[in-house]
Write a sequence for this structure.
């Protein structure tokens, strides 16, 4: 090939990969995924959000359960870059809170005449990171008696930023765990249903029909209402785990349906007929011949199911039936923002809602990207 | 076709029986019963109950019988239109739910119509204006619409309506019309209260359905008969609406039945936020109070509504698309 035959640029055809035949399917999928800008945005966004959730206690200036009775519905701290001496640096204005003698509500005013330096890696409330690192160092802080609340406080003076970060630990993992569980359940039942057919198929299909004939949130709510309240022997961890079980109780049905159709199609395909003729066992046919073929399909279904699960957990917790105090999730945080009067007074209470929207959006973008990437041989 | 409907009705009856059993099992699942909640409440008030009083309460609500017996009493009553007693209200479940279920269905159907009208318009527009700026804006809106939990959207719209338009939001009527007799002004007030719930309930469905509509129409627009229609010199509107659109609408009708659960789900939680007197708030309160006959009846009626909706969607599909033959 000479240089004169350089292909004319074609806007809609992606540049062909010359060594397609030598690359594994996984590599091809990865390449295709990384070319999808929206999916990459979603992926980067998710990585950042997980980082914020798990290192949130360190990033936020306060511990998330720490109450400040003098700073109820406190306004966000106002930062400034010029100190009182006119020098450049990171400073903030303190807030003066006084009880209004007419409405008996705390009135918060920013005192712009005073600037206080923001300290980095400052000592503050003791926290535990990732469950095992105990420290009292926070990314930002201030000398006592001043405290920094970057987005404000709730009805009993807790730091909304810290609570939103910590809430992500539950909200951003409950979907993954729920999907993993429905994946296991759906794979087993869907494959069994499609492979053996007959009476097992009938029972499983009827069960799916019945479960799908309930509206999801009321059904989830009914199941979640059956969970015992948090106590000594029923801890937050138990409840969290059982909530994921509740979510996957509905989630498996969609996957089982699709997998059943796939398995039925594979059964009559030549490669399965050949395996049967060669005397392969059922287990070998299922695990070596069928499931690897359906793997991409299973992954796509799983990825696209995560947003629904996150929304489900948020809704349940918002209703008071999902994650309940002392545990925090975005849904349970939004319970504080149920009245218009409260939202108007403290709009920062909606921050967890914004995070839910972002998490769901990023997961959807990644899910779409995976769906487009799983068939690397097209174009 | 007639045979098909008959067979579907038969299947539906079987499904309903299992739905009833499962629904009852779910309602029985919570540890403790309404009586225990009530005893706790009375004790908190300071009264100490004797064992005979407790036994009397169990007997009063029929909770001293074994589970299967209670189920049969309940289900045989259900068929006759007697759904048991709503403990917390001291009323028959039947008296309590009809109005609320009716309102729930009204909101759901309203949201369904809203969803379809908007989704089809938006979907056709963005398919025919692909890769233009409005199409990109619509795509962003669709993604956001899919990502916002509907209770959050309800809260935001409520704040917006109250703060910007100084509207009274929540409930079905403004306070001055609450007890007023029907009049033109009252109907207007009602309509004024309906649009927020309907938009909120329909939002995510609209976002999703308009994506589907766009993709379908784009597929169809590549077909040769569309090219032929254009080559014949037909007006672009005729090409789109008569030749392409009719063939792109079928997948939407196919998912019609599947979109109903989401709408009903959304309605129940949005009603709670917007304080609408529909099934949702009553249902969730019943769950928390373990008022099981009330919750169970609701759950089963919602399931029945969905099953009927699915059947209607399938019949509609056969009617719209003569190529589909049910045997």
């Amino acid at each position: 090939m000479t240089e004169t035959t350089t292909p004319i640029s074609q806007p809609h055809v992606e540049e062909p990969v010359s060594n397609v035949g030598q690359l594994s399917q996984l590599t091809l999928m990865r390449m295709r995924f990384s070319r999808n800008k929206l999916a990459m945005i979603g992926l980067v966004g998710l990585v950042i959000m997980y980082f914020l959730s798990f290192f949130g206690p360190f990033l936020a200036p306060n511990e998330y359960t720490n109450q400040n009775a003098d700073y109820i519905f406190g306004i966000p701290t106002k930062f400034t870059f010029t100190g009182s001496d006119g020098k450049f640096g990171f400073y903030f204005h303190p807030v003066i809170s006084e009880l209004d003698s007419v409405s008996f509500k705390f009135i918060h005013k920013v005192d712009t005449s005073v600037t206080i330096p923001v300290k980095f890696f400052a000592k503050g409330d003791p926290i535990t990171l990732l469950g095992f690192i105990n420290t009292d160092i926070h990314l930002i802080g201030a000398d006592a008696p001043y405290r920094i609340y970057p987005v404000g406080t709730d009805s009993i003076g807790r730091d909304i930023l810290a609570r939103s970060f910590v809430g992500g630990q539950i909200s951003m993992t409950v979907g993954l765990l729920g999907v993993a569980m429905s994946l296991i359940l759906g794979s087993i039942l869907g494959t069994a249903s499609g492979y053996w057919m007959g009476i097992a198929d009938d029972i499983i299909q009827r069960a799916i029909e019945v479960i799908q004939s309930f509206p999801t949130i009321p059904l989830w709510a009914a199941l979640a209402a059956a969970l015992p309240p948090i106590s000594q022997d029923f801890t937050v961890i138990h409840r969290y785990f059982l909530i994921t079980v509740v979510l996957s109780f509905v989630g498996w049905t969609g996957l089982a349906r699709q997998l059943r159709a796939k398995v039925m199609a594979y059964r009559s395909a030549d490669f399965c007929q050949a395996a049967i003729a060669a005397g392969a066992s059922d287990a070998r046919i299922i695990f070596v011949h069928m499931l690897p073929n359906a793997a991409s399909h299973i992954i796509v279904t799983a990825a696209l199911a995560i947003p629904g699960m996150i929304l489900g957990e948020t809704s349940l917790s918002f209703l008071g039936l999902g994650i309940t105090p002392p545990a925090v999730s975005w849904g349970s945080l939004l319970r504080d923002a149920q009245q218009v009067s409260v939202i108007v007074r403290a709009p920062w209470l909606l921050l967890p809602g914004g995070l839910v929207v972002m998490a769901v959006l990023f997961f959807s973008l990644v899910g779409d990207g995976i769906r487009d990437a799983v068939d690397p041989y097209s174009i | 076709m007639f045979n098909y409907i008959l067979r579907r009705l038969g299947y539906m009856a079987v499904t309903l029986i299992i739905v009833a059993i499962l629904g009852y099992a779910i309602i029985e699942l919570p540890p403790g019963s309404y009586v225990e909640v009530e005893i706790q409440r009375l004790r908190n008030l300071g009264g100490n109950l004797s064992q005979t009083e407790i036994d009397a309460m169990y007997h009063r609500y029929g909770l001293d019988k074994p589970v299967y017996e209670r189920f049969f009493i309940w289900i045989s009553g259900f068929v006759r239109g007697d759904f048991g007693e709503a403990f917390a209200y001291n009323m028959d479940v039947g008296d309590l739910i009809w109005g609320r279920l009716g309102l729930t269905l009204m909101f759901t159907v309203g949201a369904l119509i809203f969803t379809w009208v908007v989704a089809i318009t938006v979907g056709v527009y963005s398919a025919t204006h692909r890769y233009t700026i409005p199409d990109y804006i619509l795509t962003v809106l669709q993604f956001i619409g899919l990502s916002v939990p509907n209770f959050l959207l309800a809260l935001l719209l409520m704040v917006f309506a109250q703060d910007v338009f100084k509207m009274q939001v929540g409930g079905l009527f403004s306070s001055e019309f609450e007890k007023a007799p029907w009049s033109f002004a009252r109907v207007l007030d009602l309509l004024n209260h309906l649009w927020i719930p309907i938009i909120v309930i329909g939002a995510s469905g609209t976002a999703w359905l308009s994506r589907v509509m766009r993709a379908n129409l784009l597929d169809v627009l590549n077909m040769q008969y569309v090219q032929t229609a254009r080559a014949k010199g037909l007006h672009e509107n005729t090409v789109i609406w008569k030749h392409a659109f009719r063939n792109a609408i079928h997948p939407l009708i196919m998912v019609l039945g599947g979109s109903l659960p989401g709408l009903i789900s959304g309605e129940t939680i949005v009603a709670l936020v917007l304080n609408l007197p529909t099934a949702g708030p009553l249902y969730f309160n019943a769950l928390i109070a373990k008022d099981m006959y009330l919750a169970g009846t609701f759950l089963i009626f919602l399931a029945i509504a969905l099953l009927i909706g699915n059947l209607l969607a399938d019949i509609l599909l056969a009617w719209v698309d003569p190529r589909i033959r049910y045997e």
Q: What stands out?
A: Chain B touches chain A through 48 residues (CB under 8 Å). Chain B has a mean pLDDT of 78.
